[in-house]
Write the structure tokens for this entry.
Amino acid sequence: MYRSIINLLNFQLASWSNVGSIRLEFGQNALETLNDTYVDPQAFLSLLYRNFPKLTELDISVFGSEHGVDCNFLNQLTDVFIPRLTKLSTDTDLTLQRLPQCLTKLELTMLPLSIQNLPMINPCSLQQLSIFDVVPGFKWSIFTASDKGIVEFSNLQKLNIGYSTDANPHIDAQVRLSFPILKQLGIFRCPTNCNLLSKSFYTKKLEKMVIHCANGTAPLATTNIVSCKKLILLVSTVDDGHNKLYHQATNSIFKSSWLSDNPALVILNKQAMPNLELINWVNLSSLSICTSITTTNLLRLLDKLPKLQELTVKFLISNHWQHRANIHDRRVSDSNCSNVSFLSINFALDPKVTGMDIDFIFYMLVRFRLLKCVKSSPSLMPKIKKLATMHSSSYPHFEDLVLAPL
């Protein structure tokens, strides 16, 4: 492997001098040639250092079994570039003696040894921070606190935290956090009682918040939650034990006043499809359904979403849906969801679409009288264009439709 990299570096040598970012991926036994008598590891590191004088962003990834990967080499590799780095990303255990004071981007995937091996991190220079697979022993005290005991991320604008399934989400009792200028917050596998959602940590309203709830949405059912301009809620699974909480929380969110602009919901799994008798999503403006749904259930769901503006359906299944009014009846376009301006639609069995499928799309085009953009599969798009052209005289909004393949 090393000989191949050396040969690559020697090829068009001058081109490497302007490289500012590099990602190194090591597979199973990728470093087993460290003892290769033909390549000296120190000479190899020196070669990398000389050939990348402008490198400021380093991403190290180890996939597959880590057996055979020489951690000392990875530590030395990182240490060589540490003084230059403004971004470090790694998903493996590194024993780092230091981190650069000028580090602005840090991405870590926590492993069992990561907590012990991390040095104290200065939070003040960070502008973007991502920590994934947060494990039970994780403590925010790895970040240097001020004299007042506050860990202040004074320049942080983007924060992503991904919890492991058994992580304890509670903030260290002895550590107070502050994110005075944070703009974007992402929490993945968001657990119940996730303290990072508390508005006490944030000075200003967030521009965007992405919350992935692996099992219900109980963490968001609180009035103390940090406010934001745009919320994207990702829901993957709702088991029977969380079903009531799921509907209570989403109903509370999508009729609340703290959402000032475009709340969005992404349904990732069939288990997260709502009970149509329990939902009250009156302020929901964007919905993406990434699991299968029948045409009948989609129409029933749309009746519950009076302020919807964007709709994405990835796996639509035809069944014997019935028009509650004739397609050409103007009352169709006065029904709920008349504010939809963007539609992305795809059938589960595409390209085997039927005449009934085309009728359904036509029904949607008529219903969404403010529609500006339609996206669909390449096989469906010619049929949609033909519909728009044939009926543009009856439906003036068809003339200005932007039609684009997925």
The first strand starts at residue 21 and ends at 26. The two ends are 39 Å apart (CA to CA). The CA atoms of residues 378 and 405 lie 5 Å apart. The chain has eight helices and 17 strands.
